[in-house]
Write a structure and sequence with these properties.
Length: 527
């Protein structure tokens, strides 16, 4: 039976270009989406640009343009990057989208009405000259730990200033001293949700990566603390509660609820019912969350907390695909230090399809991994040699004008069928690296079969055997197109074109038409 699958790719933040590290974290989402579609499942794969929050307003001030313009610039760039990398999102939206803002306000109001969002009085820093409350990261003070000047949220030395330290802080914008003043904020009552969240984590963590399990349990053990959901800002989603007109929603609440609002939007425009994907209905639904390790608790604890707080029988995310980091030449990607490549820069240099394959093969699944151009080139050449050449020497065998009518080799058939099962298991266990290695084994097997049969000798001595060999290889290529579709969709499409295959499915192809062979171009360019 078809499953209803939601895949939520983390929402990139609109204040700098995406680099290869981001891609390494997000690409698993596209593999899952394409794989489940091949299985015949009803997939909704969503993501969007995270447009709100202080880093964007600060940037806007510096560049003397509006926060909206900054967000829009990066939103366009992100959309372009994902299209070029062949991400198959069903909807890529943004938190500035009117539909999102309206729905997230409704969800917020419901959690408030259910008593999980409550009012508290804080003592916050207020600048009389600017006439406003000043956020921690917009405050300046001398770090009590290292003696250097620091922002109020965290010092470069790692020290996090206390409320007491911040009493001496000055306003970054105007340089005046600040004073504390009572400030009314709304908080998510995570302590009240602790037991429910614990039960949820306990039931699901066996399907998560180790980092997601460890990080979540660490926070649960310490005891969840209430978390502010409002802040004094003029850029973000309005608070739908009386008395909070001067505040906006904290960016994290707005972004994580985006998975749900994006599904709602997609369903509304496609005449589907979002509840079929997001409600507990005894069906075989599955929700995957794909993100980097810096975002784990937002997905494993806070999002489930918000969803439980809705008291609306919501199906909580099942599987956490949390990656570690990809480094660049053994260093962290850093735009300011000029380390690493943005995706747009990488696309000028590399082949999209083999880059996708390489980022998965070398993916930071269980530990940080490292990207070098040399390693990428090795992967590119390996795929070019093993897949490109196999297709070439089968379908462009000299003198061949059609795929010959032959019989499929039973051992090859058995091997390919086993590969479908094995690779499917790896993908469903979110072990994508193993899936790439298994594909390379399949390519090695196919090339060995070809070499052992020596079709160049069969061609002279036994035409029937030659036909069987080429036919077996052509059927193998047809099946390879299914199996590589989640990883290298453009190459898979090219192969389907060569062999006149209409449907893509996660299913063994036993026969192919003995069509005319023309316009067979090399699958890859040498890089
Ligand atoms: Zn000020
Ligand atoms: Zn310091």
């Amino acid at each position: 039976m078809n499953k209803k699958i939601v895949i939520g790719g983390a929402w990139p933040y609109a204040n700098s270009s995406l680099h290869l590290g981001h891609l390494a974290a997000l690409i698993s989402g596209d593999v899952l989406a394409r794989y489940h579609r091949l299985q015949g499942d009803d997939v909704i794969y969503v993501s969007g640009t995270d447009c709100h929050g202080t880093p964007i307003t600060e940037r806007a001030k510096k560049e003397k343009i509006s926060a909206k313009e900054i967000a829009e610039k990066y939103h366009k760039e992100f959309k372009d990057v994902f299209e070029k990398m062949n991400f198959s999102y069903d909807l890529y939206t943004k938190t500035e989208d009117e539909f999102h803002k309206e729905k997230v306000q409704e969800l917020f109001k419901r959690i408030y009405d259910n008593g999980y969002i409550v009012e508290k009085i804080d003592e916050d820093n207020y600048c009389t000259k600017c006439g406003k409350f000043v956020a921690d990261r917009e405050l300046k003070l001398i770090c009590p730990s290292c003696g250097n000047e620091t922002k109020g949220d965290q010092c470069d030395c790692g020290y996090v200033p206390t409320k007491e330290d911040l009493k001496q802080a000055i306003c970054n914008e105007c340089g005046s001293e600040t004073a504390t003043k009572e400030n009314k904020n709304l908080y998510l009552e995570l302590p009240k949700l602790q037991l429910d969240i614990e039960e949820y984590v306990g039931k699901n963590e066996c399907k998560w990566r180790k980092n997601a399990q460890n990080e979540s349990n660490k926070y649960l053990k310490e005891g969840l603390k209430e978390r502010a959901v409002t802040r004094n800002l003029d850029w973000g989603v309005d608070i739908p509660i009386n008395g909070f007109e001067d505040k906006k929603m904290y960016v994290w609440i707005d972004a994580v609820l985006g998975y749900l609002t994006a599904t709602m939007k997609y369903c509304e425009s496609n005449k589907l019912e979002w509840k079929d994907w997001w409600k507990e209905n005894g069906q075989n639904n599955k929700i995957y969350m794909v993100h980097g390790k810096d975002n784990i608790v937002f997905h494993t604890l806070i999002l489930p907390g918000l969803l439980i707080g809705l008291k609306d029988n919501i199906h909580l995310p099942d599987i956490m695909v949390s990656t570690e980091y990809l480094n660049f030449n053994e260093q962290k990607f850093s735009k300011s230090k000029g380390i690493g490549l943005t995706i747009l820069e990488a696309l000028d240099k590399f082949d999209t399809e083999t880059l996708r394959f390489h980022l998965i093969k070398n993916g930071p699944e269980t530990k940080d991994t490292n990207f070098t151009e040399e390693d990428y080139k090795m992967t590119h050449n390996e795929i070019t040699n093993k897949l490109g050449n196999f297709v070439n020497r089968t379908l462009k065998y000299k003198g061949l004008s059609t795929i010959p009518n032959g019989t499929m080799d039973v051992n090859v058939e058995k091997y390919i069928k086993e590969k479908y099962t094995e690779i499917s298991d790896y993908i469903e266990n979110i072990e994508f690296r193993k899936a790439t290695l298994s594909i390379i084994e399949l390519l090695d097997f196919a090339n060995k079969y070809y070499d052992d049969k020596k079709p160049w000798i069969q061609y002279k001595e036994n035409m029937k055997e030659f036909n069987n060999t080429i036919y077996t290889c052509a059927v193998t290529i047809a099946n390879i197109s299914n199996i590589i579709e989640p990883l290298m969709p453009k190459i898979a499409e090219k192969i389907r074109g060569y062999l006149a295959i209409k449907d893509k499915k996660w299913e063994y192809i036993g026969n192919i038409d003995c069509i005319e062979l023309n316009n067979i171009e090399p699958l890859f360019e040498r890089k």
